[in-house]
Design goal:
The chain is of the alpha/beta class and 281 residues long. 41% of the residues lie in helices and 17% in strands. It has two domains: 129 residues, Rossmann fold; 132 residues, Rossmann fold. The chain contains ten helices and twelve strands. Helix 1 crosses helix 10, helix 5 packs parallel to helix 6 and helix 7 packs across helix 8.
């Protein structure tokens, strides 16, 4: 049995990662134990980690979660293989991290807008505690720096992977004086980008005529949006499958083969649709 733990099962992201993990578990003939912790206090306990080992589970996969210091000590003592997918923290030594190339994705999204002629580009961020969110923001900043452009602090805001974050941040950006208002925005997720769509609608502005928008994830929302959303594609199912394969690899340590350790970055790519265009004027 391999255990995979989420902080929620209610998002497109988690459903796609889980789909990849389930397929890989089926292919390798292993049982996948799926759990979700809504409580930070419950998820941070080491008792459930110890129960996994007592019950003979082969490995633990954590999705967008972090290990408490006591849990890190426990998995090391118990020699339980742990794989983290898009961790919320820097991965402790000895654990495997699987994630998208988030810095590259943030960079590619911004470079796309720069190539169209945009200079005043905003960024709507995810949660600060999220390592992937921080990497996407760093990619944005790196692209702006490479282009010789300063980032206006007023154009970087937001704090979650939610529609409300996109709507709230989008309204703040669009309510800036015309000379400070951005002509384009990069969002840390597609859901927030849809919030920006609503903000533009409420302010009587068009996408991409008045403001270009780029998302991140390439969820079904990106295809269904009006106009269809330019976004960064993440191979979410591949991440789930790789995690299961790595779990089995690490659990087979008795063979003396520890082939998978450290950090695995899954490539991202820009999917250009209709929400971006050169700035007016």
């Amino acid at each position: 049995i391999v255990t995979i733990v989420f902080d929620t099962l209610d998002t497109y992201y988690t459903n796609r990662v889980l789909a990849g993990a389930v397929a890989a578990a089926h292919d390798h003939g292993v049982i996948l134990d799926v759990r979700a912790f809504s409580s930070r206090r419950e998820s941070a306990s080491q008792s459930w980690v110890r129960r996994l080992v007592a019950e003979g589970h082969l490995a633990l996969i954590l999705v967008t979660m972090e290990l408490s210091s006591s849990q890190v000590r426990a998995v090391r003592t118990l020699q339980l293989p742990v794989i983290t997918i898009d961790p919320a923290q820097e991965t402790p030594d000895g654990l495997l991290e699987i994630s998208s190339a988030n810095w590259n994705g943030g960079m590619a999204a911004t470079q796309h807008l720069l190539a169209l002629g945009h200079e005043r580009i905003a960024f709507i961020a995810g949660p600060e505690r999220s390592l992937p969110a921080r990497e996407r923001l760093l990619g944005f900043r790196s692209a702006m720096m490479d282009a010789g452009l300063e980032v206006d602090p007023a154009l970087v805001l937001g704090d979650s992977y939610t529609y409300a974050n996109g709507l709230r941040s989008g309204l703040k950006l669009l309510d800036l004086e015309p000379e400070r208002r951005p002509t384009a925005v990069v969002c840390a997720c597609d859901v927030s980008a849809i919030g920006v769509y609503e903000a533009a609608r409420e302010r009587g502005l068009s996408i991409p005529g008045d403001i270009s928008v780029v998302g991140y994830d390439d969820t079904f929302l990106a295809e269904c949006a009006a106009p269809p959303l330019t976004t960064i594609h993440q191979a979410l199912e591949t991440m789930g499958a790789r995690a299961v394969e790595a779990a089995l690899d690490l659990a087979d340590e008795s063979t003396g083969s520890r082939r998978t350790i450290g950090s695995v970055k899954i490539p991202t790519r820009l999917v250009e649709r209709s929400s971006t265009a050169p700035p007016r004027g």
